Amino acid sequence: MPKKKTGQRKKAEKMRARQKGIRSAKDNLSLAKHPCNATMECDKCKKKQKNRAFCYFCQNLQRLPQCASCGKIKCLMKSGDCVVKHPGVYTTGMGLVGAICDFCEAWVCHGRKCLTTHACVCPLQDANCAECERGTWDHGGRIFMCSYCSAYLCEDDQFEHQASCQVLDSENYKCQSCNKLGQYSCLKCKVCFCDEHIRCKRFSIVKKIEIIHVQSVLIQQLKSVIYHYLLVIINMADKHMRKVMMMMMIHILTELVVLE
């Protein structure tokens, strides 16, 4: 029979599987989640910006710099690949850093792997904004990627570019209800609708019922007014005038009946 796993062995296997998942997920990280593109708040001026070696606004040095490759702010003594050895000491601050990346302007820690590989795989190597053509060193914000054309965008032009870049995924732009040109697209099935049919069907039915109710009330009021004037006309002395007015009122009544 196989040996029963101890609690310590189960924990070790779970940790091994978790670390494997973390390592494999690093290759599929989106641009916004990379450590070199993380959000940083300056200790001095309190302005938020992209992770960088010095503050873009006041040139202040961060108290706890973050590595642009692995994202750590504290180096443990068990790591083993440190270029600067520090046995028995946890290093932070300037004791952690080893270089500044030329592409993302962020600190790289003194680990051998980070120092030798980050510059080759830095995701911000060609990160010039497609709208304003500024590079990482020319603005303080983070870098994003357009969801439609996969172009690099700075924080200032991100939403404006994506709004002008997006396209409808429908085969045609005609409304499915009335065949007019529709400018609204369903996010699920990509079907287009016009201004009138984009609203909920229940809302339009309720609105129609309200209009019909108002019309019927107005017609009833008009009928009562016409009947009143008919009685007045009957009592008129002039026969010719009475006949003309009677014909007019009968014509109006027939029109109201048709509307009703």
From TrEMBL:
Family: Belongs to the NOA36 family.
Protein name: ACYPI003577 protein
Database matches in InterPro entries: NOA36
Lipid metabolism in keyword set: no
Organism of this sequence: Acyrthosiphon pisum
GO molecular function, one term: zinc ion binding
GO cellular component labels: nucleolus
Keyword entries, A-Z: Metal-binding, Nucleus, Repeat, Zinc, Zinc-finger
Keyword Ribosomal protein: no
Domain of life assignment: Eukaryota
Transmembrane segments: none
Region ranges (Disordered): 1-20
Annotated compartments: Nucleus, Nucleolus
Name of the gene: ACYPI003577
